[in-house]
Design brief:
- The chain is α/β, with parallel strands linked by helices and about 475 residues long.
- The relative contact order is 0.14.
- The model has no long low-confidence stretch (mean pLDDT about 95).
- The protein folds into three domains: about 100 residues, no CATH class; about 120 residues, ATPase, nucleotide binding domain (Nucleotidyltransferase, domain 5); about 190 residues, ATPase, nucleotide binding domain (Nucleotidyltransferase, domain 5), CATH 3.30.420.
- The protein has a five-stranded mixed β-sheet with strand order 10-9-8-11-14, sandwiched between helices. It has a four-stranded mixed β-sheet with strand order 4-3-5-6. A four-stranded mixed β-sheet has the order 16-15-18-19.
- The chain has 14 helices and 19 strands.
- Helix content is about 40%, strand content about 20%.
- The radius of gyration is 22 Å and the shape is globular.
- The termini are far apart.
């Protein structure tokens, strides 16, 4: 596949061994930019994405003239760019200074296609309380945004928790020292009753509290978007009906805080805590954290060591522009990060590597099978990790168009063991081969076993300020 509805697709020089159809977003975008430049610079498009707190983020680019023979590729290029901005930055109102036809096509996508409706519902309505809207204008409001410090408070007796799709972790921390930690298997995605989630979280907190003389603060990380401890959108509660989500889930963490005498309590997106944990462990900033777990979590710490109001939901940010790329089971869109950096990716690549698994096996069991094969030196398992590493290298180059990155921290169950080293090796090789300028400026990191066990929970515990 070398074209996506008029947009030229470029085969990677470092081809993933198990995915010959992979067409990296970064290569398509760069080829399109070169094509525009060769045609006199094309037409400028300016985008402004607004959030409900008044933050506005600008992004500008150029497209081919409307009368150009390859102008059909303008829409795919802009649509994939807007989707990347929606899920990396977040917002509900798009100020659009560009061709009227492209604006109309974006509106139709949000209103008439399942993947576009998902974006409008999840990003617009669930996260920012408004359906996505587009405002055609040549007078885009000025850019404005804010950052704030996150965590790094280690005084006192604290509990930190991390809620994943296949396990939940908890740690008891006294003045920055872990005195207890535990990992518990659970299955939150299909559960229709929020009481399941409430009971599981309370069980973990109670066990941690038993190892502390008192509880001064509780901090947590979980997949999703949280504002003032209220759940705006979260994959952990995908199985809960909408009316019950509104009645019980939205304020579930406020209910939990009340059970703990309203001590300082803060829960944030797990990607943000991933980046914070990396920044704390490395003693560095400008960190993009990527957690390869049940899904894909992302977080970003600025050069000043702060976080932004950005979403950083890398699970839904497109990294593969091949229209035949695997679809995300939740959004229905193609080429999104969750199918490349998660247990879902491992499960998808297993049959391509010639590895059979039981029909009843879940993703955690499949990952464990691949990890065991990797430990035994099986070349099929190595191909899976090499493929993920190649994916990661091209994705990081793509992310660098949206983030100022000096450090990339990867963690999560998929990176455990020797497979994690192969992933980093593959990513570095891609940057060295295709993007030497990024190879010189971006460093990859993977936490040691102690940091993997405790780092996320300690960072989560440091969130509330006493």
């Amino acid at each position: 596949m070398n074209e996506n509805n008029g947009l030229s697709l470029i085969a990677p020089r470092v081809a993933p061994v198990l995915d010959s159809g992979f067409r990296p977003a970064i290569l398509a975008n760069r080829a399109f930019g070169a094509q525009v430049k060769a045609n006199g610079g094309g037409s400028k498009v300016i985008l402004g994405l607004e959030q409900t707190d008044g933050s506005i983020f600008h992004f500008s680019t150029h497209i081919l003239p409307e009368n150009h023979p390859r102008a059909a590729g303008n829409y795919v290029y802009i649509e994939r760019l807007v989707k990347a901005l929606l899920w990396s930055r977040g917002g509900y109102r798009l100020y659009f200074d560009g061709p009227v036809l492209l604006g109309e096509q974006l509106l139709r996508r949000w209103a008439e296609t399942p993947a576009g409706e998902f974006d409008s519902h999840m990003v617009g309505e669930r996260m920012f309380d408004h359906p996505l809207e587009l405002v055609p204008t040549r007078d885009i409001p000025p850019e404005r945004s804010q950052t704030r410090p996150l965590g790094r408070h280690l005084n006192g007796c604290r509990i930190g928790f991390d809620l994943g799709g296949s396990d939940r972790k908890v740690a008891a921390v006294m003045d920055g020292k872990v005195v207890f930690s535990e990992e518990t298997i659970w299955d939150p995605y299909p559960q229709p009753d929020p009481q399941y989630h409430f009971d599981g979280i309370m069980e973990s907190l109670t066990k941690a509290a038993a190892h502390l003389p008192r509880v001064d603060a509780i901090g947590g990380s979980a997949a999703g978007v949280y504002v003032n401890n209220r759940v705006k959108a979260a994959s952990l509660f995908r199985g809960v009906p909408a009316d019950l989500f509104n009645r019980r889930v939205r304020e579930l963490f406020l209910e939990i805080r009340n059970q703990w005498n309203n001590v300082p309590f803060e829960v944030v997106n797990d990607g943000e805590v991933t980046a914070l944990a990396g920044s704390m462990a490395l003693g560095r900033n400008s960190v993009l954290g990527i957690a390869l777990g049940t899904s894909t979590a992302g977080g970003y710490v600025t050069a000043e060591g702060n976080i932004t109001s950005w979403l950083n939901e890398l699970a839904f940010m497109p990294v593969d522009f091949n229209p035949d790329a695997p679809e995300d089971e939740w959004s229905g869109d193609y080429g999104c990060g969750v199918q490349y950096f998660s247990q879902q990716c491992v499960g998808r690549l297993m049959p391509l590597a010639g590895i059979d698994s039981a029909d009843s096996a879940g993703l955690p069991e499949k990952l464990k099978q691949v990890q065991n094969l990797m430990s035994a030196g099986d070349h099929r398992a190595k191909m899976i990790y090499q493929t993920i590493g190649d994916y990661l290298g091209y994705a990081v180059a793509h992310y660098a168009d949206f983030y100022q990155i000096q450090n990339v921290l990867i963690l999560g169950r998929v990176t455990s063991g020797a497979g994690g080293d192969l992933i980093l090796e593959g990513a570095r090789d891609v940057l060295k081969t295709e993007f030497p300028e990024l190879f010189e400026t971006i460093q990859f990191h993977i936490p040691d076993e102690k940091e993997k066990r405790h780092g996320q929970a300690v960072a989560a515990a440091s969130l509330p300020e006493l």
